[in-house]
Design brief:
Largest sheet: 7 strands, mixed
Low-confidence stretches: none
Strand content: 25-35%
Number of helices: 10
Number of strands: 15
Shape: globular
Length: 320
């Protein structure tokens, strides 16, 4: 089968399309014919081997995962003998977190993994762009216990996690202020944001407006810089930078405002099924910026690394 492989850390050019052996499902696994996947910041971070200490997980001195790609949508080709939930021909979607392998024509996933049948009425390309950002957003938002009457500001509201965060926060009943750049204002409003701040024209930290929750979906704002915009007892939700882990431990004991940093993120079948329900009841939609064929993975990766994408970047795979 064809797959995008890499055997050393480096720039996007270390990726190459090659012929590799098709995986064989274990007793509790399904073999999926991949129709669509994504390039996300987990893929780019692992490929770069950054931050450097992460190589003790991803492999040192060379990467342990040769094929990247976590999000997947496609059709079940075959199943292991112990599998009962899925059958050949089922259209499925999910996220193969910390096992990767989706940047290929076929990938194996455990039946118990974050995998479910594709939502009705959704294309496979759209389904591929759901799980990673939305599940990461869910993991951050749940401790905030959003409900009607609560206010939240989402910084980086036009990215993969951000577009998911806006929709999920509205589903939970919160009043949402979204921060994005000029080109994405209409998109973010269409997702349900009550107010939108254009960060190229206004810094939310310089206004007198305060919020119950601030969700930094892109790791570009610090707790120290944002805390003045939090209400008493407010919560800062972080998605990046290990310093926030130390702050989460510190603020859990001292101070009025709390930092929440969900490490490690959890990807579960329960969450995939929850997202499927939201999609089928038209309370959630995937946001796709660009689509590239698998052969253009380098171009797709370079675009993701501009940090200017809106929602998700999808790779289409034409399996034989």
């Amino acid at each position: 089968m064809r797959a995008v492989v890499f055997d050393r850390y480096g720039p996007p050019e270390v990726l190459r399309l090659d012929d590799v052996q098709r995986p064989v499902p274990k007793d509790n696994e399904v073999l999926i014919k991949v129709r669509a996947t994504t390039v996300n910041r987990t893929d780019t971070g692992v490929r770069q081997g950054q931050p450097f200490f992460s190589r003790f997980i991803s492999g040192f001195p060379r990467p342990r995962w040769k094929i990247l790609g976590t999000e997947v949508a496609g059709e079940v080709e075959t199943t292991g003998p112990a599998v009962t939930e899925f059958a050949s021909g089922d259209q499925v979607f999910g996220v193969n977190a910390w096992r990767f392998g989706a940047h290929a024509e076929f990938v194996c996933m455990r039946e118990s993994a974050a995998l479910a049948r594709k939502p009705a009425g959704m294309s496979l390309e759209e389904a591929a762009a759901v799980c990673d950002g939305a599940i990461l957003a869910l993991g951050c938002l749940r401790p905030a216990q959003l409900r009607k009457g609560k206010t939240i500001l989402i910084y980086g509201a036009s990215g993969s996690i951000g577009t998911a965060g806006v929709q999920l926060a509205k589903y939970f009943g919160a009043e949402v202020t979204a921060v994005c750049n000029t080109k994405n204002i209409d998109t973010v409003r269409s997702l349900g944001a009550d107010q939108v701040i254009d960060y190229t024209r206004e810094d939310f930290t310089t206004t007198r407006q305060t919020y119950d929750v601030i969700f930094d979906a892109v790791g570009k704002r610090s707790f120290q810089r944002s805390r003045g915009s939090l209400n008493l007892g407010g919560m800062y939700l972080a998605t990046d930078h290990l310093q926030n882990l130390a702050l989460a431990l510190w603020t859990s004991r001292i101070g009025d405002n709390k930092v929440v940093f969900p490490i490690p993120p959890k990807y579960t079948k329960k969450d995939v099924l929850f997202l499927k329900q939201l999609i089928e009841t038209r309370k959630y939609r995937a946001v796709i910026d660009r689509r590239y064929p698998l052969e253009q993975v380098i171009e797709a990766t370079k675009y993701v690394e501009t940090e200017q994408k809106t929602g998700n970047v999808v790779l289409t795979v034409n399996s034989g």
